[in-house]
Amino acid sequence: MIKDTLLSPPVAACIFLALAYGLYRLGGVLAAPGEEHPGKYQPYASGEDLPLLGAQLAYHDFFHLALMFAILHLATLVVTTLPPEGASHRLAVAYLVGIGISVLVLTKRELARSETSQSEADRVLSAREESSPQRQRKNHRC
Fold this sequence. Notes:
By secondary structure, the chain is mainly alpha-helical. The chain has a domain at 59-141. It is built from five helices and two strands, in the order H-H-E-E-H-H-H. The chain has a two-stranded antiparallel ribbon. A hairpin with a 2-residue loop joins strand 1 (44-45) and strand 2. It is flat.
């Protein structure tokens, strides 16, 4: 009786969550204290200090990608659980065609957005290069 109760999914999940939280807290106690550094939260890439940009992340692009993966996983689940009789094969093909169209619509929108954002990024980079101090010095010498 107790074994069945402990192995039930909600109780087992609570036990493992408590265990994970305990390990997390133990790791926090055993870890060496870190030093505060002014550059700790500054952007850094490939050895260059990047200027702070007032960029706001747009999460709706990620939601489209998440929706696409959810649709693909659902399609896999539905197609693999269909009975092996002949009529279900037609249903599976029709379902997969619909899923393919859905994925095309989602990715086509994403591809158009990525091309637009890439051209905007190219314009910003070229504008930065134009206004860089080295470029201004070269133009001043001429």
